[in-house]
Amino acid sequence: MGSTSDWDVMKEAAQMCKDFGIPYEARALSAHRSPAELEAWIADMEARGCQAFIAGAGGAAHLAGVVAAQTILPTFGVPMPSKYMKGLDSLLATVQMPKGIPVPTMAIGEAGAANAALAVVAMLALTDPALRKKLLDFREKQSEKVLKASLPELK
Q: Where does substrate bind (predicted)?
């Protein structure tokens, strides 16, 4: 994430990874304020077998694009809610990548962070039958929850 203040949102991605047994590493590194450290960390993560990145950033939100430009690993962008534009600025900055450097971009905020992790889970489940079963079970539980829900009676 671009800043430690993004953790309240990005912890949703971390929790989803943890729930599925996917190892993860969460760091606050800025594309603008710590570019050399970001570049070194990306290279280190690749050397350690990382298979995807989830980058959350707000405002100018260049983090996901910078990460994607330095690796061929899938990089999912999560726009952070922002004070003045409610995350629309983050969304537009993340989604508008130039041709040739893709950044699949999720929803603004917590849902986007959780869905980014679920996208990584789905990607990894293509070659991991146990993970595929976990994902199918997760989806089934979501369906059951919706089907069991009821609306309150009118008075």
A: 3, 6, 33
